[in-house]
Amino acid sequence: MNDYVFDFEWGQSKHAKTKGVVIPDERIFVTRDPLQTKKQTDSKKERWSLKINLYVSDDWYKTS
Q1: pTM for this one?
Q2: What are phi and psi of 9, to 5 degrees?
Q3: pLDDT score recorded for residue 19
């Protein structure tokens, strides 16, 4: 899960807490291209691709 990560964000939010939504502190969202084989390019030049997947984990990706 560590190759070709385009972006990540923690899942916790102040808005969710004020609404009473319980989100695990370990939640993380990651966007990456699982088929990428070349060196990553500058993300400012990169356009959005349908090949990029969104992943979410509550246990640091110990389980899939």
Answers
A1: 0.62
A2: -155, 140
A3: 92
Please name the residues in contact with 43: beta carbons below 8 A apart, sequence gap of 6 or more.
Answer: 6, 7
Q: What tokens does 17 get?
A: 């807490």
Residues in the chain: 64
Query: What is the SS3 assignment for 14-47?
Result: HHHHHCCCCCCCCCEEEEECCCCCCCCCCCCCCC
In the chain, the percentage of residues whose pLDDT exceeds 70 is: 77
**Is the separation of the CB atoms in 32 and 4 below 8 Å?**
yes
Instruction: Look at 26 and 39; give whichever has higher pLDDT.
Output: 26
